Amino acid sequence: MQYTEIMIRYGELSTKGKNRKDFINRLASNVQKVLHDFPDLKIQTHHDRMHILLNGTPFEPVNDRLKVVFGIQTYSPVIKTEKSLEAIEKTALELMQATYKAGMTFKVNTRRSDHKFIYDTNQLTRMVADYLYNHMEGLQAEMKHPDMVLLLEIRQDGAYISNQLLHGAGGMPVGTAGKAVMMLSGGIDSPVASYLAMKRGVNIEMVHFFSPPYTSEKALAKAKELTSVLAKYSGRINFIEVPFAEIQETIKEKLPEGYLMTVQRRFMLRLADIIREKRHALAIFNGESVGQVASQTLESMAAINDVTTTPVLRPVATMDKTEIIAKAEEIGTFDLSIQPFEDCCTIFAPPRPKTKPKIDKAREYESRLDVDGLIERALAGVKVTPIYPGQSFLDDLAEEDADLL
Amino acid sequence: MIYFDNSATTKMAPEALETYSQVVTKIWGNPSSLHKLGDRAHGLLEASRKQVADLLGVNTDEIYFTSGGTESNNTAIKGTAWAKREFGKHIITSSVEHASVANTFTELENLGFRVTRLPVDKEGRVNPEDLKAALDKDTTLVSIMGVNNEIGTIQPIREISEILADYPNIHFHVDNVQALGKGIWDQVFTSRVDMMSFSSHKFHGPRGIGILYKKRGRMLMPLCEGGGQEKGLRSGTENLAAIAAMAKAARLLLTDEKEKADREYAIKEKISKYLTGKPGIHIFSPLKANFAPHILCFALEGIRGETLVHTLEDQDIYISTTSACASKKADEASTLVAMKTPDAIATSAVRLSFDESNTLEEADEFIAAFDEIYQHFAKINHLGE
């Protein structure tokens, strides 16, 4: 038994009137991207569904990629067979035998767009259901809420049979909501915030601050590796690294301890905003959660956000840490996030940061610094790297060494 | 050369040696170092651990690397006795264990622990009922080997596990040094087993390295304190080259395990059938499913095991005596003695132990060589008259 195609039902986008075409095209191209290394697949889009013709490609590996693509509500693997009762019955039986588990209830549902087919909908339903009954033990029919629906579709070019309804990732196709920059630290929260932004269709580019030699190469590699995990949900993500040590050293040297953190964050946001503008993005996302640490009190957010009027969106703002962790585990970033490499947020963290910094003071202290010069030099060191799903940065030799075992 | 002494040690696999030399020359950093040489070594160490864990079907964090079977046994036994001494000082083992278990129990006995040594039947097997009777509220440890190293008896680990299911606080250790890769895993490992010992050189890996499996949450006191490697259970800079080579050897060993074990059994079967019924021959390793497929122990009455070993050695055939050998201390425990085999026969016992490289042709050669020896000694000793 081999599936011949996958039928995809769109998510929320089905309801969006005039932008529908853009959405469908975007989804098709996102699907194409995540499946680019399966050469035999063929994608067909229709106004209400998308079909992926497998042409001999096994379903499972395709399924693994497909289930994380945003914009897909549900999908079903389908077998196309010739339009004869015998072939339909035989395929339906194989399919049921492969997927039916004892105790499940089921029903047969037939749709017929080829009205010339010799049997009508009810006849066909009854005949196939009878056939399954006679060839399988313990089948239980249930019309209202069956566990499994065997769907037969008789179209002009063949009969299509499926019995699984798989849930997609939901959300909107990445890219349909426009572009934003994401402030990615390497901790637990910002990858979750990235995921949630992408789920709403936002195309994100990662902005990551690093401070060698205070932060190690591994901290940078970890942020890149996190990006490659997240790229699984969207395809390629650009990773923008920004050197931050000079700014941190200068602030440490010149400003009072209580405002070290606030001013550092103001610089980060300022840099993120400039990069956003250069890269034609519309908003800034970050992983702040209200009240979690000193920099994330509402007072701090206000004092930091003071540097820009660009929308700063915080998808995990209202989530508890335990909720964020659960999500991080679900999306596969948690184990990486908890690897203990110092990032630039922790190395210059003052022992007693102000939890209620004042905007005026922050501005005043900051004015003692050569803000433009510092920003300019940081921007001069910016490096952009495209990162692809599954790319490895942390263990570049591990793969080679694995051959030793 | 015919090498039928694989329970003593095995020849190192060339692939494992290659891994060993690659690691010592290329990945020689200390896994604890912060720099990238250390990182790389650490990565390989953890990859080795994962591979071993996957092969054994356990969690990665349950695998500890030691210097071998002896250390694993000592760690499991003393580690339990010491860590749990406040809860009880009664520990149980069998009377047919390897010296690294038996003597460790004796040492603990001298230190004031109460030791029960379960008797065995005439096949060298403990009776689970005896264990049940021996358990009391002071018992903290049960240590029973999976496969006996002298005659190949598989101990009733499953039945013992069922009994110990009612005593969740008792540590259950299984010395599985002889049991790996012999197609009998379901007989020697259950989810109730808390600790297991393995030795690399018994499966074509290097010497000086072994494995201790310890289930999550089980407390052991380490034998050596130090830098806290292996989560504090086994301090000392990790012997990475040996660990990686062992992980490789384990993978090779467990590839096509069933076929290999069947081949070993075929050799045992062939020689065993030849020996069966010969006057003066006593076979201690019957062709049964509760005996390991690779060990064949038998005695030729009236001829000391040592004599047989040397006679065969002259023909480039290598086998072993058992520890009943008279050259060892007379009071040393041995499986055959525990089985109440008469001394005269026990001292005649020899052990053949096979591996996957042995062939049926070698079995034929052995039979031919042995038959001459047998005829000679049978005549001298008037066997069968």
Summarize the entry for a quick read.
The complex is a heterodimer of chains A (405) and B (385). Chain A has 405 residues and is an alpha/beta fold.
Description:
The complex is a heterodimer of chains A (405) and B (385). With 405 residues, chain A is an alpha/beta fold. Chain A has 2 domains: 5-169, VC0802-like (2-Layer Sandwich), CATH 3.30.2130; 179-400, HUPs (Rossmann fold, 3-Layer(aba) Sandwich), CATH 3.40.50.620. Chain A has 15 helices and 15 strands. In chain A, strands 1, 2, 3, 4, 5, 6, 7, 8 and 9 form a 9-stranded mixed β-sheet that branches. In chain A, strands 14-13-10-11-12-15 form a 6-stranded mixed β-sheet, sandwiched between helices. In chain A, helix 3 packs across helix 4 (121-135) and helix 8 (260-278) crosses helix 9 (298-305). The longest helix of chain A has 19 residues, at 260-278. Chain A is elongated, with a radius of gyration of 27 Å. The two termini of chain A are 36 Å apart. The relative contact order of chain A is 0.12. The model of chain A has no long low-confidence stretch (mean pLDDT 90). With 385 residues, chain B is an alpha/beta fold. Chain B folds into 2 domains: 2-8 and 256-380, Aspartate Aminotransferase, domain 1, CATH 3.90.1150; 14-254, Aspartate Aminotransferase, domain 2 (3-Layer(aba) Sandwich). Helices cover 39% and strands 14% of the residues of chain B. Chain B contains 13 helices and 13 strands. Chain B has helices at 14-26, 36-56, 69-83, 99-110, 128-134, 157-164, 185-188, 240-254, 257-275, 305-313, 335-338, 343-346, 360-380, and strands at residues 2-3, 63-66, 90-94, 114-118, 139-143, 171-175, 195-199, 210-214, 281-283, 295-300, 317-318, 320-321, 349-353. In chain B, the strands form 3 sheets. In chain B, strands 2-8-7-6-5-3-4 form a 7-stranded mixed β-sheet, with helices on both faces. In chain B, strands 9-10-13-12 form a 4-stranded antiparallel β-sheet, with helices on one face. Chain B has a two-stranded parallel sheet with strand order 1-11. In chain B, helix 1 (14-26) packs antiparallel against helix 8 (240-254), helix 3 (69-83) runs parallel beside helix 4 and helix 9 (257-275) runs parallel beside helix 13 (360-380). The longest helix of chain B is centred in the N-terminal third of the chain and has 21 residues, at 36-56. Residues 324-328 of chain B have low confidence and may be disordered. At the A-B interface, helix 15 of A face helix 1, helix 2 and helix 8 of B.
